[in-house]
Amino acid sequence: MSVDSLIEGRQASPPHHLRRPGLLVSLMVAPGVLVLVLFMILPLLWVVRVSFYETAQGTTMVPAWVLDQYVRFLADIWYLRNVVWLSVFVSIVSTAITVLLAYPIAMYVARATGLRRQILQTLVLAPLLIGLVSLVFGWIVILRGGGLFNSLIIWLGFVDAPIRLLYAMPAVYILLIYVGIPYVVMTLLDNFERIEPTLLEAAANAGAGGWRIFASIILPLTLPGLNAGVLVLFALNFSAFAIPLMVGSANTNLIGLVVYKQAMQLGNLPFAAAISVIMVAISAAILVIYSRLMQRFFLWRLGV
Amino acid sequence: MTGKKISLNGISKRYGDFVAVSDMSLTVEPGEFVSFLGPSGCGKTTTLRMIAGFIMPDSGALKIGDVEVTYLPPNKRDLSFVFQNYALWPHMTVAENIGFGPKLAGLSRADIDKRIRDALSLTALSGLESRFPRQLSGGQQQRVAVARALALGRSVLLMDEPLSNLDRKLRVDMRKELKELQRRLNITTVYVTHDQEEALSMSDRVAVMDRGRIASLAVPEEIYRNPPNEFVASFVGGVNYFNGTLRHVDSSRSFFIADDGLEFHITRRENTPEGTVRLMTRPEWIVLRSGEDKGLNTHPVTVDFIEYLGASRKVSATTETGRKLLIQVHDVDPMSIEVGDRLTFHIAAQNMMLIK
Amino acid sequence: MTNSIRQTFYRASLNTLTYALLFFLFFPIAVTIFVSFNSSGFLLPPQGFTLEWYERAWSMTQFRRGVFVSLMLGIGSALLANALAFPISLALVRHNFRGKAALNVFVMSPLLVPTTIIGLALYVFLMNIGLGGGFVTLLIGHVMMVIPFAVRILTASLSIFDRSLEEAARNAGASLIRSFFSITLPVLKTGFIASMMICFIISWNDFAISIFLASSKWTPLPIQIYSHIQFQYDAVSAAVVSSVIFLSIFAIVVIDRIAGLQKILSQNAGN
Ligand SMILES: Nc1ncnc2c1ncn2[C@@H]1O[C@H](COP(=O)(O)OP(=O)(O)OP(=O)(O)O)[C@@H](O)[C@H]1O
Ligand SMILES: [Mg+2]
User: Cβ separation of B68 and A10 shorter than 8 Å?
Assistant: First the structure.
């Protein structure tokens, strides 16, 4: 660059930064990526590493490369039955019920228009942003021994004495479903919105009745969204720990809760780490199998 | 402010393998108004944005006045830009939008206010100073965009389809206003449009662009009356073509026989070759007459179809030799025309132009 | 005729079912708020309106402390996450580079990993590098959790940002930096507010990550509430919970008005 061009600001060739946009991008993404690597990726790798540690005197960590923790969990039929199988069962059942309940809500909300739609949508989605503890508290009030629900069914004469709902499996189911519904509704709303009204009119024009339109147009077209909702919800439910921790009992040891208890209550970090790895592996395996089945039987038609 | 010359010298821009602007050279004289006219995607906006410095050319050189600006950042160029969507800053009032540039230029408060006042009165916007862009009509927003550009006090004005978002009547009014403003301020202007009427009515010269190149650069009359090639001819208006053979009769006249045998006497022009040629005439240059007329350059036709356009009628007709013609008849013509009528058409000798 | 009766019937059943489910969604929240204002607390029939539970609740130091910690966390993580997310969003929206799709997945990754594992991982890792048990520990956890939301909202508002606004500023003589601060940032203001509020409210309500990272000195409000209701549920806790709900509802309404709730929440990992 000549003195002349420096003074005049003239340049004979493109300025440097125009030729090296890569540098600029790197500078922009570096801080965020660095933070994520440092506080997400490294900790996750650390968990994997710790899962191969040994433990001495119960819980003291001893660096090693052994499979002790995995063997301890996977070779124990109690864990397999009361934790793994229980988690699979509970998460499948709660996901299925959630989806069944969320679908009509989503359909209803999607059909509303204007202010009504706005209000309905905000009402349905609000629980997503109201903290879990607040929601759980409301359910405790309803479900506990002397709570609203028990008072109601005693008053109606269905039972004589309060039944145990709270700190037991029913409360876990109720809350998993309760928390899951807004989530699935939201995933579905997107899909309902994308259905062109003309598609339905065309079907009606071709002589299809209400059910027929639903079964052959609406349902297939919302299947991808439903599927996405199911995938994420299952993963969330399978690894849930906060809900069973707050409203469950010793008999509701979902696998995520076992991780929490081992780490935070029993202080056995290597064991907790190994169970986390197992949890992710099982969850991924089930999701892969599920996706394959869906693809095989339904989704290939829609080209997704 | 006085306009400065703009010179483009072999400017090119490619996107991947696609050449958006190809080896473009052009000089716009100080105070001149030049339009870029062309179909969508021909590179008008790309060229204009390279002049403004929003995108850098891959090769070539660009000068404004005597200063080479090819790779200068946009804020270092002596020009102002009016955007197609106006690009008014939504968080600033009209006055703030207009005053932003003068403020950056370091003017005193009083000078800034004067710039704002002048720009507003030039564009007939006085009284709207404290409105936000969203509180203005489309036409008012357009004026603010122009006012903001003028307030910069630059020597070159670039406009990218500034009127395309207005309704037709406003568009026609505004183009007169813009032109007057430009002439008054004597600011060198490059104007992008795909509306041929706009280009023809406002420009000192029109650059018709085709696939990243200038297909023709000339004054509007020349572009319309004597286009150099078919692309230009058909882009700026309706057109009828005749292939045939040309012979010179004397120093002022030539004789033309079309392929289908129709004969025409035409005015001889400089550098017109003899032999096989292609001529064109515009629909409104053809005169329709009642059936009996015979004479020079007059031949019978049958009317196939009539489109009523208000100010004129577009008539499709077929000659006895089977040639299809497009004829525009102005509505002052009291003759009533019906489909199936057998009439004659006449083309004046000076109204058949050679196409290369 | 019969067809239309059937249609009406189906529609009515759909309506009824939906309203029953909406009731199911809202009942627990309504009950909590009701109890917090009922002078006989949990006991029915209601005895009248009172603010006594709120007074009692907010005179308890553990809740005040919880609010303080949660506010600090919410504000801190919203600011930090947006500061980190904005340049990334800018790169994602405005530049083409190798690994762009990968970067996109990468910054969303905190949503893909179960919260148990993030909590455990951060707990183990931060303890190991000597950062255990303080405010910073919690802050790091919360920032990780909200970064994906900040990136998503900021990319959304950047991608509808009209770049000719910046070009106009450059043309008016503004340097890159000047145009960024005078035009880009002010125009993106609502996007930033929405993003900050979402980050704040997610952090404010977080339970899953906080329970791993909280210490006795630094206990966010939700954890504080949880430990309180583990041993006693009284109308006082209803008042605290209601206060939290009110703040959340306020945020929800504001966010919805600014940016549209559904757009922002799509793909939200629940609890
Ligand atoms: N950033 C870009 N990346 C790739 N191709 C581009 C880009 N910008 C423009 N092009 C291509 O370059 C060509 C010229 O674009 P340009 O915007 O200059 O057209 P135009 O003449 O202004 O058209 P219009 O009348 O539609 O505005 C188009 O084919 C366009 O697709
Ligand atoms: Mg254009």
Answer: yes
Residue at which a domain ends, from B172, B201, B234: B234
Cβ burial C21-41 (10 Å sphere, 16+ → b, else e): bbeebebbbebbbebbbbeeb
- Give, for all 304 residues of chain A, the pLDDT tens digit: 333 333 334 444 555 445 556 788 889 999 999 999 999 999 999 999 999 999 888 778 889 999 999 999 999 999 999 999 999 999 999 999 999 999 988 888 888 888 888 888 888 888 888 889 999 999 998 988 777 888 888 888 888 888 888 899 999 999 999 999 998 998 898 888 888 777 777 877 777 777 778 888 888 888 888 888 899 899 999 999 999 999 999 889 999 999 999 999 999 999 999 999 999 999 999 999 998 888 887 766 665 4
**Domains detected in chain C:** 60-270 (1.10.3720.10)
Task: Clarify whether residues B256 and B201 are in a common domain.
Answer: no
Question: Per the CB < 8 Å rule, is A8 touching B67?
Answer: yes
Nearest to A242 among C90, C128, C207 (CB): C207
Q: Considering only CB atoms, which chain A residues are within 8 Å of C271?
A: 132, 179, 236, 240, 242-243
On the CB side of A216, CA atoms within 13 Å amount to: 14
User: How many other CB atoms are found less than 10 A from the CB of residue B322?
Assistant: 7
- Host H or E run for residue A194: helix A169-194
Same domain, B12 and B125: yes
Of all protein residues, whose CA lies closest to atom 10 belonging to ligand 1?
A: B20
Total tally of structural domains belonging to chain B: 2
User: What is the domain count for chain A?
Assistant: 1
Tell me what ipTM this predicted complex has: 0.89
In terms of residue numbers, what domain contains B99?
Answer: 6-234
Six-digit token string for B76: 């270092």
Helix (H) or strand (E) holding A269: helix A269-297
Domain presence at residue B260: yes
The minimal CB distance from C120 to the residues A29, A210, A259 is found for A259
DSSP H stretches of helix in chain C: 2-37, 52-58, 61-94, 100-112, 115-128, 135-159, 164-171, 176-179, 185-187, 189-205, 208-213, 221-231, 235-259, 261-265
Q: Are residues B213 and B263 in the same domain?
A: no
- Closest atom of ligand 1 to B48 CA is 18
Which residues on chain A are in Cβ contact (under 8 Å) with B71?
A: 11-15, 18
In this structure, are residues B5 and B28 in contact, taking their beta carbons and an 8 Å threshold? yes
CATH assignment at residue A87: 1.10.3720.10
In a domain, A227, yes or no: yes
Query: In chain B, how long is the greatest CA-to-CA distance?
Result: 77
Confirm whether B1 is domain-assigned: no
Q: What CATH number did the domain enclosing B312 receive?
A: 2.40.50.140
Domain enclosing residue A129, as ranges: 68-301
- CA atoms of B139 and C216, how far apart (whole Å): 64
Q: Which residues pair with B326 in a beta bridge?
A: B316
Tokens of A137: 């508290």
Report yes or no: A126 and C30 within 8 Å, Cβ to Cβ.
no
Task: State the DSSP string of B247-309.
Answer: EE-SSSEEEEEETTS-EEEEE--TTPPPEEEEEEE-GGGEEEE-TT---TTEEEEEEEEEEE-
Size of interface A-B (CB pairs under 8 A): 18
Helix, strand or coil, per DSSP, at residue B81: strand
Structure tokens at B242: 């005749």
Does some domain include residue A188?
Answer: yes
Residues of chain C contacting A276 with CB distance shorter than 8 Å: 116-117, 120
Tell me if A9 is assigned to some domain: no
Q: Find out whether the peptide bond into C28 is cis, omega within 30 degrees of 0.
A: no
Q: Report pTM.
A: 0.85
Among the listed residues C150, C156, C267, the one whose alpha carbon sits nearest the alpha carbon of residue C199: C150
Asked, for residue B355, whether it belongs to a domain, the answer is no
CA-based end-to-end distance of chain C:
47
